[in-house]
C-alpha cells in the first residue's frame, strides 16, 4: 500500500489505534481529579454550583471513560498480534506491568466508579467523596503502571537477558527506571492541562452564548486559574524531561533540534527555530536560528555542546524531519497555553474575565490544544526513540510480527473506518452533552430522582458508565 | 519453591476465559437472535436484560489477554500473531456491538435502525471469528520461535469454519435460554419456540465436532481413546446428552431458569472437553504449559495483584447479577 513496508504499516496501525486511545484516558485522568476537587469544594463551602458542576462533568466523564475502555480492548491484544517478537522477548517485564494496569482499571470500575456516578442518593456524602477520590487515585495509579512500562522500553534497566528473553531481576529498578519520573510527571500534568483547556473552552462557549450563570463563570474561572498555574509548571517539567532524554537518548534530542554536527572548536550551537531537516543530506535546510541558545537550553552553558545526529550510525538515527516538527507543534501549543493563562490573569485583574469576546473566543479555540499537544508529544518521544522498541536492546524491525503488507492493509482499513464512525459518534455525543451546559439542580435534594432528560429513575439504572449519561439523541 | 506458578497461572487464565465464554456468550447470543425477533420493543427488552452486566462480561477478555502476556508471553505472541485476522475481526465485532449497544439507546428514531443492525452484525462477526480462532487453536500450529511464520490465511480450514458456526449456535442457545429466564409473555414464548431447534442443532454440532476432532488430530485421538483416560472421559458425552434432553424436557414445562442452567452446563462440558484434549499442552501439538511460561519473577509479581483483585471483581459481579435479578418486562426503560 503506497509503497509502505509491512513494518511501516504495523507502526502506522499501532500509532493510529494508540493515538485514538490516549485521548480518552488523558481526559479521564484530568476529569477524575477535577471531580474530586469539585466535590471537596462542595462539601467544604456548601456552594451548590460546585455540586451542579460535578453532576454535569460526571456525565461527560462517564462517556469518556466508556470510550477509553472500548479503545483499550484493542491495545491489550495488539502487542501480540502485531509485535509478537517484541512481546515474546520483553513480555516478562511489559506483561506484568500491563496486567497491573488492567487490574487497577477494573478494580476502579468495579467498585468506586459505580458509587461515584450513581451513589449520590445511596451513600452518605463522606463515603461518596471517598469514592470520587479513589476514582481519581485509580486513574493515576493506572497511568503509573502503563508509563512505567513505556519508560522501561525507553530507558531499560533492572533485567537480564537469559536464553534470548528479558528476565526481570529487580522490579523496583524496572519500574523506577531513569525516564519514568519525568514521563509520569509530564503526562499527568499534560492530562490536567488538556482537561483544564477543555473545561475552559466549554465555559467560554457558554459565556459567548450569553449563559452567564454562576456555574458557568465558576468552571471557566477555575479552568483559567488551572491553565495559568499549570502551563508554566509543565514547561519546567518538559525542560527537565528533555535534559533527562539528552542523558539517556541523545540521538532523540539531536533529531528534535535538527542538530547534525558541532562547529570545529569548542563553540556553542544555535537553537533552530524553524527549518526542514533533510535526512539524506544530513542537513537542516531553510533554517532560522538563534546563536548559542541551543547550548544555553540544553547544557546551561554559553559554549556547551551535544552530539549531533551525524555522529550516530545512519541505522541508529530517528527521523529528524518528523520529530523536529512534532516537537515544535507541542512547544508552540504550550506557549499559546501560557499566553492564555497570562491573558486570563490580565482580564481578571481588569475585572473583565467573563465579557471580553476576543479573549473568550481564544479560550474556545484553545479547547483541543491540550489534546493535540499530548499527541504531538507522544509522536515526538515514540518516533524519536526509533529505531529501537526497547532502547539499545531490541530494534523495532526485530519486534514486529511476520504479517504481509496485504494483511496489515486490510486490518488498518477496518480500524480506520470503524474508529472514525465509533469514536466520531462518541466525541459528537460528548460535545452535545457539553452544549447542554451545567443545570441548576435545586436547593434541597443532592440530585433529583429523575435525571436531566427526564428518563428512568436513577435507582433503577444499571451502574454502567454510559448509563450515567442522559439520553439526548445522537 | 513449593508453588507451581505456571500451573496456577494456567488455571487463572483458563478460569478467566471460561468466565468470558459463559458470560459474554449469552449477551452475544442476544445479538445473534436479533434477526429472529422483528418487533423493536421486544428487541429493546432483549437488550435490557443484559444492559446492567454486559460490559463487565467483556472485562474477562481483557484480563485473559493481559494475564496471558504476563504469564505466557510466548503463547500470547504466537497465538495472537497466528490468528491475526480472525482476532482483529473478532475485536472489531466486539467494539462494534459494544458501542452499538450504548448508542442504540441514545439514538434518535431515524438512526436507531443503523445501531440495531450494527449490534446484530457485530455479534455475529465476533462470535463466528471467536469460534474460528478456537478451531484453529485445536488444529494446532507448528511453533518455530516466538512468532507465527505461516500464511495469513492458514486459519481458514473446513474444521475452523465449522467451529465458527458451531460457536454461533452455542451462543444462540445461551442467549435464548437466558431470555426464557429473564422475560415473559410473547417474547418468552418466541424464545421457547426457538430454543428447541437450536438445542437440536447444537447437539448435532457437538456430535460432529466430537467425531471430527479426534480423527483429524491424532494427538487428541490418542488422549481420548487410551486407557485409562477413556474411563474418565466416558461420562462427558453421557452428560452432554443428559443436559440436552434436559433442556428439551424443560422447554415443554413451565420452568424458567432450568434451560439456562443446563445450557451453561453444556458449554462447560464442551470447554472442559477442550481442556482435557489439550492438557498438558497450551499450544497443540507440543508446546507444554511449563515450557511456555515466562520467568518466575514475572509470574510471581503479577500473581500478587491477581490474587488481590480477581476475588473483588468476582464479588462485584455476583452482586450486580443479584441486584438486577428477576424478569424484565417489555417497555421497561432501564438502560
What's the structural blueprint in terms of helices and strands?
The complex is a heterodimer of chains A (474) and B (335).
Chain A: H1 6-45, H2 48-81, H3 84-118, H4 125-154, E1 159-162, E2 165-168, H5 171-175, H6 180-208, H7 214-248, H8 250-257, E3 271-278, E4 283-290, H9 293-299, H10 320-349, H11 357-365, H12 369-384, E5 388-390, E6 394-395, H13 396-399, H14 405-436
Antiparallel strand pairs in A: 1-2, 3-4, 5-6
Helix pairs in contact in A: 1-2, 1-4, 1-6, 1-12, 1-14, 2-3, 2-7, 2-14, 3-4, 4-6, 6-7, 6-11, 6-12, 7-8, 7-10, 8-10, 10-12
Chain B: H1 5-33, H2 40-50, H3 54-71, H4 73-82, H5 84-106, H6 109-139, H7 158-182, H8 185-216, H9 218-224, H10 229-233, H11 235-252, H12 258-278, E1 281-283, E2 287-288, H13 289-292, H14 296-323
Antiparallel strand pairs in B: 1-2
What is the residue-mean pLDDT of chain A, rounded to a whole number?
A: 86
The helix fraction of chain A, in percent, is: 55-70%
User: What is the first-to-last residue Cα distance of chain B?
Assistant: 50 Å
What order do the helices and strands of chain B follow?
HHHHHHHHHHHHEEHH
Widest sheet, order of strands of chain B: 1-2
Largest interface: A-B, 73 and 70 residues
First-last Cα distance of chain A? 35 Å
Cα Rg of chain A: 24 Å
Assembly state: heterodimer
What is the β-strand count of chain B? Answer: 2
Membrane topology (chain B): Multi-pass membrane protein
Protein name (chain B): Cytochrome d ubiquinol oxidase subunit II
Family (chain B): Belongs to the cytochrome ubiquinol oxidase subunit 2 family.
Subcellular location (chain B): Cell membrane
Question: Can you walk me through this structure?
Answer:
The complex is a heterodimer of chains A (474) and B (335). Chain A has a domain at 10-177 and 403-474. Chain A has 14 helices and 6 strands. Chain A has helices at 6-45, 48-81, 84-118, 125-154, 171-175, 180-208, 214-248, 250-257, 293-299, 320-349, 357-365, 369-384, 396-399, 405-436, and strands at 159-162, 165-168, 271-278, 283-290, 388-390, 394-395. The longest helix of chain B is centred in the middle third of the chain and has 32 residues, at 185-216. In chain B, helix 8 runs antiparallel to helix 11 and helix 11 (235-252) packs antiparallel against helix 12. Chain B has 14 helices and 2 strands. The chains are: A mainly alpha (474), B mainly alpha (335). Chains A and B meet through helix 2, helix 3, strand 2 and helix 14 of A and helix 3, helix 4, helix 5 and helix 14 of B.
Amino acid at each position: 500500500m503506497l509503497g509502505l513496508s509491512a513494518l511501516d504499516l504495523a507502526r502506522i496501525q499501532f500509532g493510529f489505534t494508540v493515538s485514538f486511545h490516549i485521548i480518552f484516558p488523558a481526559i479521564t485522568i484530568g476529569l477524575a481529579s477535577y471531580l474530586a476537587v469539585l466535590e471537596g469544594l462542595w462539601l467544604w463551602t456548601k456552594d451548590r454550583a460546585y455540586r451542579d458542576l460535578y453532576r454535569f462533568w460526571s456525565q461527560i466523564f462517564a462517556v469518556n471513560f466508556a470510550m477509553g475502555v472500548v479503545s483499550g480492548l484493542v491495545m491489550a491484544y495488539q502487542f501480540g498480534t502485531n509485535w509478537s517478537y517484541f512481546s515474546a522477548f520483553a513480555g516478562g517485564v511489559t506483561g506484568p506491568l500491563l496486567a497491573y494496569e488492567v487490574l487497577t482499571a477494573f478494580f476502579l470500575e468495579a467498585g468506586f466508579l459505580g458509587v461515584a456516578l450513581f451513589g449520590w442518593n445511596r451513600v452518605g456524602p463522606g463515603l461518596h467523596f471517598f469514592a470520587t477520590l479513589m476514582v481519581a487515585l485509580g486513574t493515576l495509579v493506572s497511568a503509573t503502571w502503563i508509563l512505567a512500562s513505556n519508560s522501561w522500553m525507553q530507558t531499560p534497566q533492572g533485567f537480564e537477558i537469559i536464553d534470548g528473553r528479558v528476565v526481570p531481576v529487580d522490579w523496583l529498578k524496572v519500574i523506577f527506571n531513569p525516564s519514568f519520573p519525568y514521563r509520569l510527571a509530564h503526562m499527568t500534568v499534560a492530562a490536567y492541562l488538556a482537561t483544564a483547556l477543555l473545561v475552559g473552552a466549554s465555559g467560554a462557549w457558554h459565556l459567548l452564548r450569553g449563559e452567564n450563570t454562576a456555574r458557568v463563570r465558576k468552571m471557566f474561572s477555575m479552568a483559567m486559574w488551572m491553565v495559568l498555574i499549570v502551563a508554566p509548571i509543565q514547561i519546567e517539567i518538559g525542560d527537565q524531561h528533555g535534559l533527562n532524554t539528552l542523558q539517556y537518548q541523545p540521538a532523540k534530542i539531536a533529531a528534535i533540534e535538527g542538530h547534525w554536527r558541532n562547529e570545529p572548536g569548542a563553540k556553542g550551537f544555535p537553537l533552530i527555530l524553524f527549518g526542514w531537516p533533510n535526512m539524506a543530506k544530513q542537513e537542516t535546510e531553510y533554517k532560522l536560528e538563534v546563536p548559542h541558545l541551543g547550548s544555553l537550553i540544553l547544557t546551561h552553558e554559553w559554549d556547551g555542546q551535544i552530539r549531533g545526529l551525524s555522529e550516530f550510525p545512519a541505522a541508529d538515527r530517528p527521523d529528524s524531519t518528523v520529530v523536529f516538527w512534532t516537537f515544535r507543534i507541542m512547544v508552540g501549543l504550550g506557549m499559546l497555553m501560557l499566553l492564555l493563562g497570562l491573558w486570563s490573569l490580565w482580564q481578571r485583574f481588569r475585572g473583565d474575565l467573563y465579557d471580553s469576546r476576543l479573549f473568550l473566543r481564544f479560550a474556545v479555540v484553545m479547547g483541543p490544544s491540550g489534546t493535540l499537544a499530548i499527541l504531538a508529544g507522544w509522536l515526538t518521544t515514540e518516533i524519536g526513540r526509533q529505531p529501537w522498541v526497547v532502547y539499545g536492546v531490541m530494534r523495532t524491525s526485530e519486534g514486529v510480527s511476520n504479517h504481509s503488507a496485504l494483511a496489515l492493509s486490510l486490518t488498518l482499513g477496518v480500524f480506520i473506518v470503524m474508529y472514525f464512525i465509533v469514536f466520531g459518534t462518541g466525541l459528537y455525543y460528548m460535545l452535545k452533552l457539553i452544549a447542554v451546559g451545567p443545570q441548576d439542580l435545586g436547593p434541597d435534594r443532592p440530585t433529583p430522582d429523575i435525571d436531566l432528560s427526564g428518563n428512568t429513575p436513577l435507582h433503577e439504572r444499571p451502574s454502567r458508565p454510559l448509563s450515567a449519561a442522559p439520553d439526548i439523541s445522537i | 519453591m513449593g508453588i507451581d506458578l505456571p500451573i496456577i497461572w494456567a488455571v487463572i487464565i483458563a478460569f478467566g476465559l471460561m468466565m468470558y465464554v459463559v458470560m459474554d456468550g449469552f449477551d452475544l447470543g442476544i445479538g445473534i437472535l436479533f434477526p429472529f425477533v422483528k418487533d423493536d420493543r421486544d428487541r429493546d427488552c432483549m437488550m435490557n436484560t443484559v444492559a446492567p452486566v454486559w460490559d463487565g462480561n467483556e472485562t474477562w477478555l481483557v484480563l485473559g489477554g493481559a494475564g496471558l502476556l504476563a504469564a505466557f508471553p510466548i503463547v500470547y505472541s504466537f497465538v495472537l500473531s497466528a490468528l491475526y485476522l480472525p482476532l482483529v475481526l473478532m475485536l472489531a465485532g466486539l467494539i462494534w456491538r459494544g458501542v452499538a449497544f450504548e448508542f442504540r439507546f441514545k439514538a434518535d428514531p431515524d438512526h436507531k435502525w443503523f445501531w440495531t443492525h450494527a449490534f446484530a452484525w457485530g455479534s455475529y462477526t465476533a462470535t463466528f471469528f471467536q469460534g474460528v480462532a478456537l478451531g484453529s487453536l485445536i488444529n494446532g500450529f507448528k511453533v518455530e520461535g516466538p512468532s507465527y511464520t505461516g500464511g495469513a490465511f492458514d486459519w481458514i480450514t473446513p474444521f475452523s469454519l465449522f467451529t465458527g458456526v458451531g460457536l454461533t449456535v452455542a451462543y444462540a442457545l445461551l442467549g435464548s435460554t437466558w431470555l426464557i429466564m429473564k422475560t415473559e409473555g410473547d417474547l418468552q414464548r418466541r424464545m421457547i419456540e426457538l430454543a428447541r431447534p437450536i438445542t437440536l442443532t447444537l447437539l448435532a454440532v457437538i456430535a460432529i465436532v466430537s467425531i471430527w476432532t479426534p480423527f483429524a488430530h491424532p494427538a487428541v485421538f490418542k488422549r481420548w481413546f487410551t486407557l485409562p483416560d477413556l474411563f474418565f472421559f466416558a461420562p462427558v458425552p453421557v452428560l452432554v446428552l443428559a443436559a440436552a434432553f434436559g433442556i428439551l424436557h424443560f422447554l415443554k414445562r413451565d420452568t424458567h431458569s432450568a434451560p439456562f442452567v443446563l445450557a451453561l452446563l453444556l458449554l462447560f462440558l464442551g470447554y472442559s472437553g477442550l481442556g482435557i484434549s489439550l492438557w498438558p499442552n497450551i499450544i497443540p501439538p507440543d508446546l507444554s504449559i511449563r515450557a511456555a511460561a515466562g520467568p518466575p519473577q514475572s509470574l510471581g509479581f503479577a500473581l500478587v495483584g491477581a490474587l488481590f483483585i480477581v476475588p473483588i471483581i468476582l464479588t462485584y459481579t455476583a452482586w450486580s447479577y443479584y441486584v438486577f435479578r428477576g424478569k424484565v418486562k417489555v417497555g421497561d426503560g432501564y438502560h
